[in-house]
Structure formats: C-alpha cells, structure tokens
Amino acid sequence: MANLxxxxxxxxxxxSGIGLExxxxxxxxxxxxxxxxxxxxxxxxxxxxxxxxxxxxTVTLMSLDLASFASxxxxxxEVLDRYPNISILLNNAGIVARDRTVxxxxxxxxxxxxxxxxxxxxxxxxxxITTTPKARIVTVASHAHKFARTGLDFDDLQTEHGYKxxxxxxxxxxxxxxxxxxxxxxxxxxxxxxxSVHPGFVASNFGRNDPLGNLTMMLAKPFALSPAKGALTSIxxxxxxxxxxxxGKYFYKCAAVEPTSYGRDDSAARRLWDISKQLVASA
Length: 283
Description:
Number of helices: 9
Shape: globular
Distance between the termini: 42 Å
Strand content: 5-15%
Structural class: alpha/beta
CATH architecture: 3-Layer(aba) Sandwich
C-alpha cells in the first residue's frame, strides 16, 4: 500500500457502493478522507463504517449535491478554506434516471450530475490540486460509454429529444472520459495527473430508484463484482506508486485500456470543455 498519511482525498458519492469501499481503501493507507455526500444520515452512517473498518486515516463528512451548482460552489469554498492541499479528487458519484428530469439549474439530470457537476467541482478545486505535489484526479467512467455509438450530440447535450435512459447514461460516461482527456492535456505541465476508470459491472445501489433498474440488477447480481472488488481500480489509480505520473489514461482492472475513438478525440474533448464551461457559468 502507498503511504497517504497527511494527504487529503475527496470522494464524491462515498456513502455507499464503490465510493464507500474506495474511501475505506484510501483511509487504510492513512489518507484524510473527505466524504462528499448529498444525504447527511447516509453519510454519517458511512463515516462510522469507514472509521470502524479502516482503523486508520481520518474521515470527514461534508455536504455536496452534484445536482446543484450552488451546493458545489459552497462545498468547494469550504474545502479551499479547510484544506491547504488536495492530493486526490475521486469523482465517483453517478446516477441514471429512467425518465428525463432536470436539475435545479435546469440541466438534464444524468448529464448534469455525472458530467457537469464533476466538471464544475474539479475546475473550482483545480488550482489547489495542481499546486499540491503529485496530486491525482480520478473520474469513474464506464464501458457503458460504448452505448454512445455516434459520440456526443453537441446539438442536444440535454437530450430534449428521444430520451433513453441507458443511452443517456452512456453519453454521460463518454463525457467523463472526454473531460479527463482534455483535463489531462491542460494540467500536463503541473505535476498533477487526471485519469478515468471503469470499475467493472458491480453489484451496488445503482439504479435503485428505477424499478426496471432494480429488476435488472437483481437478475444480474450473481455475475456482478462486489463493491469492494469494483473499487480496486479506483484505489489503484488514486494511490498506487506504479501510476505516479501517468496522465490521460482510461483504466480497467488496474491496467490502461483504450476507450472508443470518441473518447480519444482531441477536438471533441476541447469542444465539450468549452461548452461545459459556458453552461456552468450561465447557471
């Protein structure tokens, strides 16, 4: 294990599933783990479990709702006030919505949370991260990005037409990879790194608010990874010395693999960055 003593690690969606297991894994290595959670009671229960199972590091619970830009900005301000260094930012939280809904800021929910929320959070913390020695930004994407068979539709990023839950989820995961691709380019000279990961098919609370998603997960559960195994790649890319200096890669089973060609498209990644910057500034 790496020695993460006195290193701050921020994890979104850390109250259950992969995020909780990643928090335990990083705390066991001595990290000061910040649980960025939307639900206070679930976050508090997760904090207790992590402390009991990790028996190392420190665990701090902070409020963050990735569906609200106001909440993201408030969280970022509090983090910047409290932590002079940020060694790890693990953008782990993710949702899929059966029906099209919008965030409080008016953006399609899945794209808004999975991509725009993490885009805003990362960019708000970026100066602090890039001035922290050997800092790492890790974003949980998915092989589901392959559902976006024609890439992103820049004329309909909010999927106002033809909403299909898993296709929209796949596009949000492609956006995660494209965001990481461009972020890695932008921070290449800072000493910080940005990578994305596919955790594998994991038995978790994913889709818990969707009856069809719940049924699918129940049927597929015997073939799924445990959250602990699903978190291994996130922990590896966030902390392992073997990954130090590795930038702009997509990992699966603790090895760099290739995403689809859309995830490696430089011009499309830059375009997504510019549009995302405009969208988060306008709300």
